Amino acid sequence: MGASAIHCAEDARRLARRRLPWMVFDYIDGSAGRETGAVRSRAALDAVTLRPRILKDVSQKSLATEVFGAPAGRPFGIAPMGMCNLSRPGADLMLARLAAQYSVPHGVSTVASTPLEKIIETANGHAWFQLYFSGDGVGTFKLVERAKAAGYTTLVLTVDVPEVGRRPRELRHGFTMPFRIGPSQFIDFALHPQWSLATLFAGKPQMANFEMDGFEFDRTATRANVTWDTLAQLRDAWPGKLVVKGVLDVEDATQLVSAGVDAIQVSSHGARQLESAPAPIDMLVKIRAELGSNFPIFYDSGIRSGEDVLKALSLGADFTFVGRVLQYAIAAAGEAGLERMWEVLSEELSNAMAQTGMTTTSSRG
Predict the structure, then answer these.
(1) Containing domain of residue 86, as a range?
(2) How far apart are CA 275 and CA 37, in angstroms?
(3) Could you please report the per-residue DSSP string of 61-114?
């Protein structure tokens, strides 16, 4: 079964689960704790309703929008995701080519498995660099300078990881970064030969952005020393657009505006950090109400369909980002699967717009 079997996100997830080793699938799919946060987030999105309208001329619709004044072919982009090449060799560049084709931002993770320079080149400039601050910050600011030199003009600082969330599904498999193979992993891989042979041929995925002098990365190291002063230093050092990702509190959002960031991204890290965090879609409404209509607010976490995209837009997001479902699709059927999943999201959004009498995504409200 290939890309033609993908008709919704759950189809892609089911196919990915069948193809991937358990350790890799659970790394992509898992959430914090008992995963009640993910359930709560999904329930909150499901509870949002859209307003059906009738007898509207929706024969000519556009899914295009703008982000920071630049045209984008869709109101959803690619969320930063670590070690994407675990889903299938070359996944990072598949995503980059998609970003180039639709002129949407590709969030390039600090822990991407392809160098940040190669990704922005392949994305034809449609790439934002996502930054984790770690250690004493020396290596972090080296990455900032490296992103600047590579041509990145938007930096996304992720602030909801003072420590990596506890994800029991990962812990049970002994998942680590850098990627290590022990006896249990070997058995897991042997039971999934298609993935294992392709990965063996391509080479073990690495955290490519750390292959530079003077920078070692420990995923489990504390990042708890990041403060508002750190943000101020980063603001001074970065001349381009600065987005802060992982915001779920109204007070934090207002302080970020005062700190001079260019946009905030409402996100629970896909429910992978704090199990008891509020549903991001609920906080989007509150943060938008506090900040008013003009300040840019982006949204990610839990988006599984084009209708979810429209829900987030209708509740105040200026732009949205999709993550896991794209990795499911790549794992399921490679680049053809990714392109099919993107088409599905686009078709679902277009259909929802028609049902609600909308011809552009900017006509929300």
Answers:
(1) 3-363
(2) 5
(3) -B--EEETTEEESSSEEE---TTGGGTSTTHHHHHHHHHHHHT--EEE-TT-SS
Dihedral pair phi/psi, residue 264, rounded to 5°: -120, 155
CB-based contact 286:265 (threshold 8 Å) = no
Residue 29 is labelled as binding a ligand: no
What pTM value is reported for the model? Answer: 0.94
Do the Cβ atoms of 223 and 273 come closer than 8 Å?
no
Measure Cα distances from 357 to 55, 192, 313 in Å: 8, 46, 15
Asked if residue 227 belongs to a known ligand binding site, the reply is no
268 in a known ligand binding site = no
| Assigned token pair, 289 | 């109400």
Residues in the chain: 365
Q: What is the CATH number of the domain that holds 308?
A: 3.20.20.70
Indicate the number of domains in the chain.
1
pLDDT tens digit string along 7-58? 999 999 999 999 999 999 999 999 999 999 999 999 999 999 999 999 999 9
DSSP structural state of residue 237 = H
Taking only the tens place, the pLDDT of each residue in 90-136 is 999 999 999 999 999 999 999 999 999 999 999 999 999 999 987 77
Torsion of CA 288, 291, 297, 299, to 10 degrees: -40
Omega within 30 of 0 (cis) for the link into 178: yes
| Residue 60 is labelled as binding a ligand | no
Q: Which residues are catalytic?
A: 269
Structure tokens at 98: 């998609």
Q: Which of 163, 166, 146, 147 is nearest to 155 (CA)?
A: 147
Q: Would you call 230 exposed, middle or buried from its count of C-beta atoms within 10 A (0-12, 13-18, 19+)?
A: middle
